[in-house]
Amino acid sequence: MQDQLSSTFAALADPTRRAILARLALGETSVTELAKPFEMSMPAVSKHLKVLERAGLIARAREAQWRPCRLEAGPLEEAASWIEEYRRFWEQSLDRLDAYLRQMKAARTKSKTRDSGKKRSNTKSKE
Amino acid sequence: MAQSANAANPATEFAFSRTFDASREDVWNAFTQPEHLKHWWGPPGSRIEIVHHELKPGGLFHYLMKFPDGRAMWARFVFREIAAPERLVWLNGFSDEHGGLTRNPWIPNASYPLETLNTLTLAEQEGKTMLTITAVPFHASDEEAFVFAGGINGMKAGFGASFQVLADYLAQRRRP
After folding, report:
1. What is the reported pLDDT for A94?
2. Which residue in the set A2, A76, A83 is minimally distant from B150, CB to CB?
3. What's the pLDDT score for residue B96?
4. Whether the predicted pLDDT of A29 surpasses 60
5. pLDDT value at residue B80
6. Segments of chain B with pLDDT less than 50
7. CB–CB of B92/B118 below 8 Å?
8. Average pLDDT for residues A79-103, to the nearest whole number?
């Protein structure tokens, strides 16, 4: 079984499905309304809706005959919070990397200065 | 160089970049050599103990993160693609002491992916190095990598106008 997050991202991978979600973010609406902006057959739109429904990103009302679709924000919020967490993880890691690279560079510059210092003193002693 | 960074960062992926004042060689080595990794890899305040590190496709990097409060947890990389000093692809996950894949022992959230597929791209720019990381949740049962557009921040950069609407919607809901 796929975890929720993978299903969410798989569902989001398609631009038509993202556009459908964006439309639903404005409020619930019918399948016919949803299909309007797309040059797509109704069955094709229905297929996308099924994917979104299976992923739990939308819900379709049972009561009304026109079965309006609405956005379910839970999985999207979960996806967003996972991404936030992962982003934080990487930001912190790269902060440490940055500090380490600076250290490496400073150590190298130091040893270079020391080396050239040595050379200079060698030349001096020769003189 | 900038082009290869762009190629690794299509509009539909979760990605972010940072520029380091270091050569590409140094950044690559810091990421791929245990003697460097042990100095910086891991959450802030932690130290890592590397028990295995084999930089080859399918190779394992297995390590223990130790925290100041005495807690510790195992984690691992499984390398997939290695193209020094430009591109590294690996699966990132938590593990047990034998290197077997596990959930995060502290946050065993079943909806989170077990592994994440990461791609590191390094581009040299006038003596500095631009690092780009892209990440996707990875599900072992279907070997395809999911191409997805990323979270609230990623949305701004990647998802474009349609997703901005969603981002706004989510932000609205968060407001009390």
Report:
1. 93
2. A83
3. 94
4. yes
5. 94
6. 1-13, 140-164
7. yes
8. 87
Nearest-CA distance A14 → chain B (Å): 8
Domain residue ranges in chain A: 4-72
Nearest CB among B14, B31, B166 relative to A25 is that of B166
User: What are the domain boundaries of chain B?
Assistant: 2-145
Question: Which pLDDT value is given to residue B136?
Answer: 72
On chain B, the residues whose CB falls within 8 A of the CB of A26 are 165
Classify residue B87 by its DSSP letter. E
pLDDT, mean of residues A101-116: 86
Say which residue the tokens 């934080």 belong to: A88
In whole angstroms, what separates CA B15 from the centre of its chain? 10
pTM: 0.71
Architecture of domain B2-145: 2-Layer Sandwich (3.30)
As a CATH number, domain A4-72 is: 1.10.10.10
The kind and range of the H/E element at B136 are strand B128-138
**Distance (Å, whole) CA A13 – CA A80:** 14
